[in-house]
Amino acid sequence: MLGAITGDIIGSKYEFRNYKAKDFEPLFHAEAKFTDDTVCTVAVADALVNELDPVVTLQRWGQAYWHNRGWGQRFSLWLADDNPQPYNSWGNGAAMRVGAAGLLATSLEQALELAYQVTVITHNHAEGIKGAQATAVAIWLARNKQGPHEIGQALTQRFGYQLDMTVDSIRPGYKHTEASQHSVPQALVCALEATSFEDALRNAVSIGGDSDTIAAIAGSVAEARFGIPDDIAAKTWTYLPRDMRAVLTALYQQVQTPADGELGELN
Q1: Do 248 and 2 contact (CB within 8 A), yes or no?
Q2: Residue 90 belongs to domain with CATH number
């Protein structure tokens, strides 16, 4: 999950000022900050770690960090509603915030179920659910030492995502979109094609579009594939207030390595 937050912070500078190359410096721009993506990611982790209602935690964290801004219009209304209901969103916000489900799951089936539970409260459109579940499954498979080719094949078989594109082929014509079906596959390619954690985030920024969210999704999968270099993790930690650090600490205390033979059936 720290991978998603790192991606959010690094991508924040470029969300509306795309930089279509991988050579941006420094990695953490002076204007980088955590956004609503981090707030929602922490809120979902809080719900799963502490067995709380994700509606309650998303509203609580969202209202506490309301000043952070960046909320989508419908989601901001949902945050403020006394009786919040799903609003059929197909946006990529569900995939961005779901990292804890992939980390905490001890089986493929549980990864799918946890992702569904924390998604359907807002993103009850099929594409929104698909994006979140695909991200959680990618994280879970990567933690089980599946390679990028195997992960890509599994995601295509189960979710129908065509992941045979490359970062170089995405970059030239890619436009800003928050639609899950047009951003989650691209983010997954950025993570699966990468040669390191940092390379995944550079891939994500370089394609443009919704840079912080794409980098958050790519970062969550890249963390599971490669881990996070100590210097990058330490830098990310400095951006986070104490309440977020407490949730992250509790999350990683609960994360378990799945046992051999738990890959389950993808089809």
Answers
A1: yes
A2: 1.10.4080.10
For 73-119, how does the pLDDT look when each residue is reduced to its tens digit (9 = 90+)? Answer: 899 999 999 999 999 999 999 999 999 999 999 999 999 999 999 99
Cα–Cα dist 18/167, whole Å: 15
Q: Using an 8 Å Cβ cutoff, are 194 and 220 in contact?
A: no
> What sign has the CA pseudo-torsion 117, 119, 124, 126?
negative
Token pair listed for 45: 């982790």
Query: Is 171 within the bounds of a domain?
Result: yes
Q: What is the pLDDT of residues 61-84, one digit of tens each?
A: 999 999 887 888 899 999 999 999
Can you give the residue range of the structural domain that contains 177?
Answer: 2-16+29-254
* Domain count within the chain: 1
pTM of the predicted model over 0.90: yes
Phi and psi angles of residue 91, each rounded to the nearest 5 degrees, phi first:
-75, 165
